[in-house]
Design a protein that fits this description.
- With 166 residues, this protein is mainly alpha-helical.
- It has a domain at 12-121.
- It has helices spanning 23-38, 54-69, 75-83, 107-131, 159-165; strands spanning 12-13, 20-21, 94-96, 103-105.
- The strands form two sheets. The protein has a two-stranded antiparallel ribbon. A two-stranded antiparallel sheet has the order 3-4.
- Strand 1 and strand 2 form a beta hairpin.
- The longest helix has 25 residues, at 107-131.
- The protein starts with 11 loop residues before the first strand and ends with a helix.
- The relative contact order is 0.08.
- The model has no long low-confidence stretch (mean pLDDT 84).
């Protein structure tokens, strides 16, 4: 589904053609393009989701998996997880399965999203704890540094000075 104008449902830009699309389409398109780039495959044609073939199958599986993931996680979390280091070697969220649905979740992708969600929640918790600290940070008063006087000398003649005087 491609629309030329941005609507409430079609809020994300298409990557390969002009227009806007829903979140599932945008992310599925991104995953397919990243997969083809990484494995040096042929670039998918424009609007490859309408052309029957390997790209369309993977696109639909990813799109359905992302649509069902939206029920559990927010769009921004899924998108950030896919762009993060956790998804470095993961290229699909939906995999081929012989069953009534025809697809299943990629367990590595689900685990990566869960880890990313856990880490983000932990970072947010630490940030809130740091912001809630009532104790102001007290800086120690620093005294101005004074330069040392250079008039220190030993009046006694050392053995080295005696040798220099010779």
């Amino acid at each position: 589904m491609t629309t030329k104008r941005r609507t409430e449902k079609s809020n994300y830009p298409r990557i390969t053609v002009e227009g806007f699309c829903p979140f599932e389409d945008h992310l599925a398109e991104f995953l397919i393009l990243r997969w083809t780039d990484e494995f040096k495959m042929d670039k998918p044609p424009c609007e490859f989701w309408n052309i029957p073939g390997k790209y369309q199958e993977m696109y639909r599986r990813n799109m359905k998996a992302i649509a069902s993931l939206r029920k559990k996680y927010e769009c921004s979390l899924i998108y950030s997880a896919v762009k993060s280091k956790y998804f470095k070697n993961i290229y699909h969220i939906g995999l081929k399965c012989y069953g009534p649905r025809g697809w299943k979740y990629n367990p590595l992708a689900i685990e990566a999203i869960k880890r990313y969600d856990k880490d983000i929640k932990q970072i947010m918790k630490l940030a809130e704890a740091a912001a809630d600290q009532d104790e102001p940070v007290v800086e120690e008063e620093k005294k101005p540094l004074e330069s040392r006087k250079k008039t220190f000398s030993n009046k006694k003649k050392t053995s080295i000075r005696k040798l220099r005087d010779l």
